[in-house]
Amino acid sequence: MRKWLFDDKAHVIIASILDDASEHLINSGICKPQEVDEYIALDYIAQCSAAITHGVVYLEHDEMIGAGIFLDRYSRKNNRQLFQRNSDRCVSQLVRSPNIYFPDYLALLRFAYLRVLNSVSDADILRASGVLMLAAATLPGVRTDIRRELRRRGLSYDPSLISEDTLQKRIGPNGSVTIAHRLAGPKSQLIR
């Protein structure tokens, strides 16, 4: 398994894109300043979930496609070329460390998946939900919640939705979130 390293160049590009996006959303009246971080984080979750939805299993590359579309959509004239030249490293950085850029990412993802889990009545739609697959690959305990909800409905859980290798890589062996997801906002730094 390759160790994930923080990419400073990608961080600068992503931070610039999100800063421009925040400014645009506030200046155009789409969001109030205190709501802009949540708005952008929910949009990121929606975009990644849309790329994952209807997949047979969770694939990190599907999430990366959603993250790439998200970053491309928010990049503006002054940072678009820089993003396009470095898109692979920016997308990889964002997928591996979303709560550096979205401080409430884990809580918002948990609320989004609980909303889906409690509101969707069709089991096939539930199994194909990108939000559930993204949450199960990111948050500890989600597979247990999904399994319990499906059992309550008289259905069986498909353990192949998220592979054990993916869970080990993203969440960790004991259900603890990995270092990339432990970082709690832009003030956090990796210990070298």
Largest sheet: none
Report helical residue fraction: 55-70%
Q: Total number of helical segments?
A: 12
Overall pLDDT confidence: 83
Query: What ranges have pLDDT less than 50 throughout 5 or more consecutive residues?
Result: 176-192
Structural class: mainly alpha
Radius of gyration: 17 Å
Number of domains: 1
- The H/E string reads HHHHHHHHHHHH
Tell me the β content: under 5%
Give the overall shape. globular
What is the CA-CA span between the terminal residues? 19 Å
Annotation, overall tally of beta strands: 0
Quick rundown:
The protein is mainly α and 192 residues long. Helix content is 66%, strand content 0%.
Could you characterize the architecture of this molecule?
This protein is mainly α and 192 residues long. It has one domain (8-179). Helix content is 66%, strand content 0%. The chain has 12 helices and no strands. The protein has helices at residues 8-27, 36-52, 60-74, 77-85, 87-96, 98-101, 105-119, 123-127, 130-138, 142-152, 164-170, 179-182. The chain is globular. It starts with 7 loop residues before the first helix and ends in a 10-residue tail after the last helix. Residues 176-192 have low confidence and may be disordered.
